[in-house]
Design goal:
635 residues; mainly beta; 5 helices
Length: 635
């Protein structure tokens, strides 16, 4: 369940003919309840993560029955602004806006990863009918352990802002937009510790030129900087409150379900898998062997935040032209360029140090800091729009956007971190990766080159006693979005460990260029009817809609498609390679669906899954044909 409520109080006042004020208070309460496993048992409460096919099964991830499992995401906001209009004969008119805003976010979460606090990382799954059997291969499969080390209390993430803006019309030919915003961030995490305290100024400058002063042709240019608060996921990364520690242990026992069958059931396979680590129902949390530890983090101990951490920002430059062609047609064209700066990175190197956790494990320390020029996130686009009213009752319009989003920084893209902020980690164990194949610059997943919207409405002329009746239509066409071929490759045996406690054995490798593949284009037509009838001060309305009239079924979200790629780590018939000395363009790809023998004969290094690029589930597709009926009363 997700109970939620919001309270809003708003005030608007006209104090004089030139002076206006506005104030608002809002508060939102939102809770996740009963999400995750209903069992804390070792077998029934442990998810199996098939990391080759990126699928979870056996038990839900997260925990619904663990202490403090309900998650709260609340916020409140206090906002006030004043507007003053001044007209002068010498320096034109000024519309001055000044205001303040205080936003506070409160997050309370004990982020259990499973009911048992374990996740079994399987390297493959076999099926007999609807029955699944996990495969655990020694040296490939892992055990993940995720204990919550400290229960959380609500965080307090504050942003206090003040802004001043002047829309200045010098004369009929030239006008300016001059603005300045100040933001102060104050972040207290779920353990009650102040983690960030910084401030930033954001200037905004714009000019519009109307050569003839008649509004039929205008040129505009602007510059703005937008500063964001450091998100909760970053500001809270150095606390142990509510955050799980994690430990990955490499499985070294006998092969489980690696042959041709018959196979052990999931319960029996898990019992044997846990038994090798010395774990059973009566000894669920033993001290595991450091020799098998291949990665770990203890929140509040292994994660640190650099002093003077700054909020990320985006700089924007825009140029445009707008005008009218005759009395019925208006248009606008804008070009926009945006570049992100102050992007956050997670660093683990020989200078960040090591610690020993309460379990006796020696772990490497990570540092969250602002990254340098090696990180890119850039956007540029061209947007054109028009509105045409050829007759009184017919309105037509549309817009087209061409854009390009590229770089090597994913940020809050859904596929990167489940929609949560994600710092890039190119400089975490830098000896074990290269930017050219770990974080190459290319088309980012949200890059969409063309988006077209065409819309129209027609109002029928009816006698007043019959009310008002109209029809509307919206057509959209969209090009696809990119994705790449990324597979895990062995790196540990090719690097001399400079002294890390848990150096990586494997790392993700871009076997194709970033964004080398693209989903298909898709389109959709929506229709609506609008009927209303006034009875005194009351209006009754009926609004039926049909979305996706032709029930087109195209992939519209690349987050939910199959991007599984096999390498020698997951398929023994593929040939291993040294990622530090082998040229990417010399790697051999085995065709989709080809047999292992074929791939082996080719000397292939990688192979896309048989359903690579196809939908994993219904969320990948556009909205199916949908009927909506809205009825109501307006006062």
């Amino acid at each position: 369940q997700i109970p939620s409520n919001i309270t809003v109080v708003n005030y608007n006042g006209v104090l004089t003919s030139q002076f206006f004020v506005e104030g608002q208070y809002s508060a939102k309460h939102f809770t996740f309840e009963n999400g995750g496993s209903r069992s804390e048992d070792l077998i029934t409460g442990t998810p199996i993560w098939d990391f080759t096919n990126n699928a979870f099964w056996n038990s839900p991830i997260f925990c619904a029955v663990c202490p403090g499992a309900a998650e709260q995401r609340n916020n409140d906001d206090v906002f006030a602004k004043a507007t003053y209009f001044l007209s002068t004969p010498s320096i034109g008119s000024h519309n001055v806006v000044v205001g303040v805003d205080q936003f506070r976010g409160h997050h309370l979460s004990n982020n259990y990863q499973s009911g048992s606090q374990y996740i079994a990382l399987s390297d493959d799954t076999h099926f007999v009918g609807q029955t699944a059997f996990p495969q655990f291969t020694p040296g490939v499969s892992y055990l993940g352990y995720y204990p919550i080390v400290q229960l959380a209390r609500a965080s307090d993430m504050q942003t206090q802002s003040a802004f001043l803006n002047d829309t200045w019309k010098l004369n009929n030919n030239i006008s300016f937009n001059l603005g300045l915003r100040y933001d102060k961030n104050h972040a207290v995490d779920m353990s009650g510790v102040l983690r960030q305290k910084d401030s930033a100024w954001s200037p905004r400058l714009g000019i519009t030129v109307d050569p003839k002063g008649d509004g039929k042709l205008k040129f505009n240019a602007s510059y703005a900087r937008y500063v964001s608060a450091v998100q909760e996921g970053f500001a809270g990364s150095a606390t142990g409150a509510g955050s799980p520690a994690y430990y990955y242990y490499l499985y070294g026992g006998p092969p489980i379900n690696t042959g041709s069958g018959p196979w052990l059931s999931a319960a029996a396979a898990l019992a044997q898998f846990f038994s090798w680590f010395g774990i059973n129902h009566s000894n669920m949390f033993p001290t595991l062997n450091q020799d098998n530890l291949v990665g770990g983090s203890y929140p509040g101990l292994t994660s640190k935040i650099a002093d003077g951490l700054m909020s990320p920002h985006t700089d924007e430059i825009a140029l445009g032209v707008a005008g009218a062609a005759g009395p019925h047609l208006t248009y606008r064209v804008d070009g926009t360029y945006r570049k992100a700066g102050g992007l956050l990175e997670s660093v683990i190197d020989t200078s960040t140090g090591q610690v020993t956790d309460p379990f006796g494990n020696v772990l490497d320390v990570s540092l969250l800091r602002n990254g340098g020029s090696e990180y890119w996130r850039t956007y540029y686009g061209l947007a054109a729009q028009f509105a045409w009213r050829p007759v009184d009752r017919l309105s037509l319009g549309g817009n087209w956007t061409w854009s390009h989003t590229y770089g090597n920084y994913l940020g809050e893209y859904l596929g990167a971190g489940g929609g949560l902020p994600l710092a890039i980690d190119l400089n975490s164990y830098p000896e074990y990766k290269r930017a050219s194949w770990y974080a190459p610059v290319g088309d980012l997943p949200e890059d969409q080159r063309h988006r077209v919207r065409l819309f129209g409405s027609y109002d029928f002329l009816l006698p007043k006693t019959f009310g008002n009746f109209g029809v509307g239509a919206v057509f959209q066409a969209n090009t696809g979005t990119p994705y790449g071929a990324v597979g895990n490759v062995e790196v540990g045996s090719y690097v001399t460990n400079p002294g890390y406690a848990t150096p990586p054995a494997n790392e993700p490798y871009y076997l194709s260029s970033r964004g080398a593949f693209t989903t298909g284009a898709w389109y959709q037509l929506d229709l609506s009817l609008n009927y209303s009838h006034n009875i005194g001060p009351v209006q009754l309305f009926v609004h039926p809609q049909i979305l996706n009239v032709f029930n087109a079924q195209h992939i519209a979200n690349n987050t939910y498609i199959d991007t599984v790629v096999y390498t020698a780590l997951s398929k023994g018939y593929l040939k291993a390679f040294n990622p530090f000395t082998t040229a990417q363009n010399s790697l051999v790809e085995c065709p989709q669906g080809a047999s292992g023998a074929t791939c082996q004969a080719m000397g292939a290094n990688w192979q896309p899954d048989a359903t690579f690029g196809q939908a994993n589930n219904a969320l990948a597709y556009q909205t199916p044909q949908t009927f909506i009926l809205s009825v109501g009363v307006r006062f």
